[in-house]
Amino acid sequence: MENGKIYLSPEYEVVRSDEKCIRCRVCERQCADDVHYYDADADRMCALDENCVNCHRCVSVCPTHALKIKVSENRFRENDNWSDTKVREVYLQANSGGVMLGAMGTPLKYPTYWDKILINASQVTNPSIDPLREPMETRTFLGKKNQKTVRDADGRLVTKFTSPQIELDAPIMFSAMSYGSISYNAHASLARAATELGICYNTGEGGLHEDFYPYGANTIVQVASGRFGVHADYLMAGAGIEIKMGQGAKPGIGGHLPGRKVGPDVSRTRMIPEGSDAISPAPHHDIYSIEDLRQLVYSLKEATAYRKPVIVKISAVHNVAAIASGIARSGADIIAIDGFKGGTGAAPSRIRDNVGIPIELALGAVDSRLREEGIRDEVSVVVGGSIHSSTDVVKAIALGADAVYIGTAALLALGCHLCRSCHKNNCNWGIATQNPTLVKRLNPDYGARRLVNLVSAWKHEIMEVMGGMGINSIEALRGNRLMLRGVDLNEKELEILGIKYAGESI
Amino acid sequence: MKRVFVNEEWCLGCRLCEYWCANANLGGKTASDMVRNLKGRKINARIRVEDGANDGKINFAVQCRHCYDPMCVKSCISGALSISDGVINVDTEKCVGCFTCVLTCPYGCVMPSDDGHVVQKCELCLSNAVGSPACVEHCPNHAIVYEERGVL
Amino acid sequence: MIPLRHPPLEGQIRIPSGCAISGVFHKDGKTESGRRIIDSIALMHDRSNGLGGGFAGYGIYPEYKELYALHIFYLDQNVKQDCEEFIREHFDLANAGEIKTRNIAEIRDAPKIWRYFIFPHAYKLDSSELDEREYVAECVFAINRRFEGKAAVFSSGKNMGVFKANAFPEDVGRFYMLEDYSGYAWTAHGRYPTNTPGWWGGAHPFSLLDYSVVHNGEISSYDANRRNVEMFGYDCKLRTDTEVITYIFDYLTRREGLTFEEASAVVAAPFWSTIELMPDDEKEFYTYLRKRYHALLINGPFSIILGFTGGMLVLGDRLKLRSMVVAEHGDTFYAASEESAIRLIQPELDRTWAPDAGEAIIVKLYKEGE
Prior knowledge:
The structure holds three protein chains of three kinds. Chain B has five helices and eight strands, in the order βααββαββαββαβ.
């Protein structure tokens, strides 16, 4: 069999209830992976299981709920050491001779520390606050806070804030996802939602499509190692500029947008020839050290007349606290840290699944370190890499973050079903694709609405939880680690997170 | 008056609207009604998806526009077609199956019913079990909307 | 009930508490003894539970007004010699002696309580490159760190003093014989901790240099505030709200040079929705303070009386979750958790009112040192 397909049986099985199937063929029309087809002679719908990526598009659109996708029950001989996945991966690589590619965050079972942290509430000695009746403030400013307080000749306080700030109505931003890795309509949804919500979305490294300049006040423009789409107007267009040094899903690895995704629009936006591969080098080739970073930070500040805060985004790696300390002294206004569970449009899956550290521990270490060095107010800290819910946001803020980045959650709101096939350009939900017939499946009117709903819902929940703690302003939650307790954590984990065990009272 | 509009930019040509239309006009409302109503049957929906030019990249669902000055009503020889509150209805008791209306409708939105003796057309699901256009409710991409846009 | 054999010390455990507070201030600089403030706080007996009471008096050491007065608890007498050696090493000592106390039935477990009138060694101060107040504060931190649990400096200002104990405040007043002191301002505190503080250092007022704070409430922003001020070298050993509030005011006024009005706008900042309605210059003023000192906003219920040389600040939280009444009679200003505690000692008042949420009331001597 060509290409060794003999070794690979279908991972999924399309199960169709013939009793319910009315042969409307919607599944066939909606599957971009060519799984479903109609056998006219037999008058029945059939499926090519081997093509299925389990994206649930057919399941979702089937009007009679006749479909479900099962993980194939077909198993190799039981082996606790060589799991089916590991065996399959060896077959795949023996077939292809290539690196394993994957998309979205790691699916492997690593501890989720958010789920081992519990939040406090007021009882008796301190009243909880009802956010429906009292103001509950989630407004957040990102940027340097350590401006020297001075007085003018008359002794009056000079109240001009000189360090540029990004103002957010809630401590949540949409993570960097480039135009190219995701569709025009996905970007349109993010841009419109961010504007309505008073937060920011992030262009990623693919430049800013000309249609989205009007949303600039709610846009973070990214400068990555490929420098795609970077020019003076672009830098001035956003609320802030992010230098992407690393990404949680692929620390130390660059990016590669295949030429087939580089159509006329992407080409114009990225400022590269149509059909050419867009390759972001692993390092910035003008940044081989921390002092080089400082030069880029100040180049960008000079280019924007010191009006735009500069974010430096790094992936959470072992030495993250020391690196963050270096960045805080580099002139950067904001540090963004991406945990190893963070998503991606495509990454070597070995890297994604094995390199980096969890964001919770990275945040614990970074916030503590910056405080020990007395430079916490030099920078704001933004974290991302698997923020699943409003309470993850609360826990992140209480651990010391100023705001969070959400990427996967935002894509889920847009319809993503986490099939982790983004790198195939065949996204059935119109998100991670440049194929026009698929892109139109994401109606941005509706996409933006769903994003607004999601973040508004989280904001409501954050306010409820804050009120329960007797806190009515997000700054009183920030770094308030006494509001957190750990369960199922060892001494070392507690120490790094800087929190006490449940039942301890200090 | 609210009317059904289709935005071809978002129409995916999935044809779910046709099936939900057919189901609604056979008295159905739910997915299991659809199985009962449409299993083994060729549907004759009152909304039709046109697959247009550009390699099938443009699709457009079409149903009765509920015109202000409708040709179908003018041409009806039996008085079966009438306008009430802006909605054009068919009285199948009066329809004699001459199909003049089928020929005069510029949009092709009046069609013979399954038995071939009378005509059928979109009546906005106002008098069936769904109560409001089923095509709108079930469009997965919000390409079909039911809204007031003033006089057209 | 069997008492805990080794009750946890303040600082080993965080103790939320309710409280009563009271204050008197003579704007004309007239002085009075501690009698009336004792009566005032005694009236609110039910707001405390015998686990902490204390007073701060201003203008009480006119004969040593240029010197810092250290009040020290020696919980372990063995460290007294070492501690005094430390003091002599860093300061010129003008006078030292045990603080006079009255033997009363209600207070039995008293540590040795000493007072030292001191001034920084000129050459030490010079070589430290710190300003004088910073130098004294650093030394206070150093003593409290070095002799943790054994000795504690609980008062360190000029011409002022804190007197506190692990008892009902009226008993504390009698114990310290406050009727023998005379000051232009007094504050008092009765504590109602919900836990068992084991020692005297935890009673209030909490004080650093001439700042003393009496506080009623439990702040929910505690750890956010603590972790911020710790960045600036304030060691929050006692884990109490009052301690961190004192440090915040010290940081904002002494280190950052804010006025008490400005500092109050930081800790009890107006809501954004209020700021948006302000005229532009005010809007910019409050926005600046909220952005710049974001981590020093205090959340949760509190009402405080902060005493400082020549003045007194009364402030409540931004939601007004704790009671506070202020009053004036002639040149005398009063503040207390309950109006009755004022009426008791001054039945006729020119004016009484409850300050708004987050509104700072600041009174000062008409003339410095008058």
